[in-house]
Amino acid sequence: MRRVTVDAGRDGQRLDNFLLKALGGVPRSVVYRLCRTGEVRVNGGRAKPSRRLISGDEVRIPPVRIQPAHARRVPDSVIEQLEQAAVFEDDDILLLNKPAGLAVHAGSEQPFGVIEALRQSRSGDGTELDLVHRLDRDTSGCLLVAKHAAANRELKIALAARQVEKHYVALVLGRWPTRISRIANTLGKNQLRGGERVSATDSGGREAISQFSVLEVGRACTLVRVRIETGRTHQIRVHASEQGHPVVGDTKYGNHAANRRFAAAGCRGMHLHSAKLAFDWRGERVFELPVPTPWDRALQL
To answer: Does the active-site annotation cover 136?
Structure first.
């Protein structure tokens, strides 16, 4: 049993994120169980995973056995790919052009992701790398990583206050109607469909707002830019699909027959790309990544 005092650098951090760092290698589900059963205590009392810690708090952390599977070494080829994907780096943040097909973190079916690869690559350099936000596994583009807890906390506060502009580009099936420029509804919490997590419009859900604009019209699909005002799970994919114009290559919300046609022509994978992040960071910063060049072919099909 360990008792750890929260230092100033972790003031304001959520308890679950604090424990994930302290128990490096355990799944998030284990952290939630430890909180639920009361094995984790803050200042002697039970605490929810969402509790914000204060400098000086004492956290009691029970011993946890980490299964070897969760400590799997990330292949050098993946680490090299990510290091080459770095777009910007300073003492506080790292911005990556995340490759499509790579999860941002480990999961029940993913032995490692971007954050595990970066931590392995940069172990021993004094940084405390953590994800500021997330992207779906099959989405490419701007992914922001904090290099210490204070930067992570500051950026997450900015995200929650909608002070970070997030723009995506997507190829959607068919001709996107120019009259549809703003979609505002509510999306429900993840539901289980055949064992998979999905999102859907739900009157009891959380507000979801996406702004669509047409960039280029192809023969069978449309290139659109999407600015999201909120960051709900699968938000763009659900909004596009519910308008009858799903993202090309989306296997969860898309048109499977159309996806097969595009794949047969060499246009594989989901065509959704995080193209731009704009936020105030030591003076305003704007990071913009171009549309993946293989998409040009899909527009001509």
So the answer is: yes
